[in-house]
UniProtKB/TrEMBL annotation:
Compartments where located: Cytoplasm
One GO CC term, this protein: cytoplasm
Source organism of this protein record: Kineococcus radiotolerans
Matching InterPro entries: FAD-dep_OxRdtase_2_FAD-bd (IPR003953), FAD/NAD-bd_sf (IPR036188), Fum_R/Succ_DH_flav-like_C_sf (IPR037099), Fum_Rdtase/Succ_DH_flav-like_C (IPR015939), NadB (IPR005288), Succ_DH/fumarate_Rdtase_cat_sf (IPR027477)
Function statement: Catalyzes the oxidation of L-aspartate to iminoaspartate, the first step in the de novo biosynthesis of NAD(+).
Protein name: L-aspartate oxidase
Domain of life from the UniProt record: Bacteria
Pathway info: Cofactor biosynthesis; NAD(+) biosynthesis; iminoaspartate from L-aspartate (oxidase route): step 1/1
Length: 528
């Protein structure tokens, strides 16, 4: 038992939102219009993946573009997207973006004074809004966090989700561990709520190479699965093609390629157009595999992103359009105006997640999910660039509206359901985090096959019965709980990737590269 721990705290609220990225902040602000809201965040308010988003937010600000945005999103999803969810997302985007502007986000403007619209991979036209050049996520996080601080939302920072509380088959609250273990006392906060909204982000820490921050450890997905919620599309993990292969890696936004940067292999030759006529602006899964193949052809040497011609195309310095990337390059001793940037793919975004309908309602009454942790079917087998911030923004608002209708479970009769036996409590990890990350990168990364997935599955299967971790056990470090969540998420990902024997979108099987004409969505659900 932690000697600095204190007694449990009890709290009652109408809505508990867990997570403080764009989805969680938006859900909290909208829900606070009609009720009491508690917003819990694992670290500081406004931290998380949203803060690091460079590319921008896609929106059909011209009403005539909505249909094309829908078509582009469906095409990227490789036949697995939900058309109804995609239409709701694209139609709701323009109004949601305007609300962001009203809340203080200053989007970049063009020479005519209107919002500047950029082009990114697999978009048929320019529709990407940016703020601060390549600091869109930081601008959105700052504006929404400030709005939350001005609101009546009760904020609890350094609050780790230890588990969801259930009664008679519905979620009624959550157990949170509050406090920084390194600096002060930790205590249990038991929240009772009419509605719990999970907006906990993704799980990039499953892989040794990722664009995600350290907090992305599948906490929300793991808690929801243990509480009985279905999860879906877990085989579909997007690998961003261009992450700087430098001592301190960083994402190099898709928008750089949208402004004319090209990929070159170790011999100095362009190669992306051999994989797809759209070249560097093909969907991310296509470009990531092309890079992986080019690296394999040259003994694993990184490819380079040649952005030396971008400033001439823009008519202004690279650093004016991409200040964040330019600064990170400078810190690495590299000038993108004169020197190509070495890049490799890295785990970026999980299309799969907690199964929800378009309003964020899960298969368990009382529980909703929004943002990357959710799987509404919008992204299908591969996410369209810059649709992630849009989805988090739109669904965050939709969830807040839907919770007012009261509890009830969403149903998905067309899903193929796989039942997975397991306990309702977390199990202590039997494998170290670095070993897990290395195994998933090698065997469940950009390219997969049955043999490699079997190796990963064996590593993730404990040889002895693991120890259960109680939500209120203050003697268990946060990192141990994170490791338990990562092992569970990894087992589900590998099981999903093994079950889908063909290739589809971001899930590529080298032992069967064929794509099915009518793919089926597969959900996983825990059984006792």
């Amino acid at each position: 038992m932690n000697p600095r721990a204190r007694a449990a705290e009890e709290l009652r609220t109408d809505v508990l939102v867990v997570g403080a990225g764009i989805a969680g902040l938006t859900a909290a602000l909208e829900a606070a219009r009609t009720g009491r809201v508690v917003l819990a965040t694992k670290t500081a308010l406004g931290d998380g993946s949203t803060h690091y988003a460079q590319g921008g937010i896609a929106a059909a600000v011209d009403a005539a573009d909505v249909a094309a945005h829908v078509a582009d999103t469906l095409a990227a999803g490789a036949g697995l997207s939900s058309p109804a969810a995609v239409r709701a997302l694209c139609a709701g985007g323009p109004a949601a973006v305007r609300v962001l502007a009203e809340r203080g986000v200053e989007f970049d403007r063009g020479s005519t004074g209107g919002w500047a619209l950029g082009l990114e991979a697999a978009h048929s036209t320019s529709r990407i809004l940016h703020a601060g050049g390549d600091r869109t996520g930081a601008a959105i996080s700052a504006a929404l966090a400030a709005a939350v601080r001005r609101s009546d939302v009760t904020v609890r920072e350094q609050a780790f989700l230890a588990g969801l509380r259930t009664e008679d088959g519905r979620v009624v609250g959550a157990d949170l561990l509050v406090g920084d273990e390194a600096e002060g006392p930790v205590h249990v906060l038991r929240v009772t709520a009419d509605a719990v909204v999970l907006a906990t982000g993704g799980a990039g820490q499953l892989f040794s190479r990722t664009t995600n921050p350290a907090v992305a450890t599948a906490d929300g997905l793991a808690a929801a699965f243990r509480a009985g919620a279905a999860v879906a599309d877990l085989e579909f993990f997007q690998f961003h093609p261009t992450v700087a292969a430098l001592p301190s890696p960083f994402l190099v936004s898709e928008a750089v390629r949208g402004e004319g940067a090209v990929l070159l292999d170790a011999a100095g030759h362009r190669f992306a157009d051999r994989a797809d006529p759209r070249g560097e602006l093909a969907p991310r899964d296509v470009v990531a595999r092309a890079i992986a193949a080019a690296m394999a052809e040259h003994g694993g040497a990184p490819v380079v992103l040649d952005a030396t011609g971008v400033s001439a195309r823009l008519g202004r310095p690279f650093a004016e359009r991409f200040p964040g990337i330019a600064q990170l390059c400078a810190e690495a001793g590299l000038d993108p105006e004169t020197t190509p940037i070495p890049v490799t793919p890295a785990a970026h975004y999980w299309m799969g997640g907690i199964r929800t309908d378009a309003a964020g309602r899960t298969t368990v009454p009382g529980l909703w999910a929004a943002g990357e942790v959710a799987c509404s079917g919008v992204h299908g087998a591969n996410r369209l660039a810059s649709n992630s911030l849009l989805e988090a923004l739109v669904t965050g608002g939709q969830v807040a509206e839907d919770v007012r209708r009261g509890p009830g479970a969403a149903r998905f009769p067309d899903d193929e359901v796989v039942e997975v036996p397991g306990p309702a409590l977390p199990l202590a990890a039997h494998v170290g985090r670095r070993d897990l990350q290395a195994a998933l990168w090698e065997h469940a990364g950009v390219v997969r096959d049955a043999a490699g997935l079997a190796v990963a599955a064996k590593l993730l299967t404990p040889q002895e019965d693991p120890v259960e971790i109680a939500p209120d056990d203050l003697g268990v470090p946060r990192s141990t709980r994170e490791d338990a969540n990562l092992v569970l998420a990894a087992r589900l990902l590998v099981a999903a990737a093994t079950a889908r024997e063909e290739s589809l979108g971001a899930h590529f099987r080298s032992d069967d590269p064929t794509t099915p004409a009518h793919p089926v969505r597969r959900s996983f659900r825990r059984t006792a």
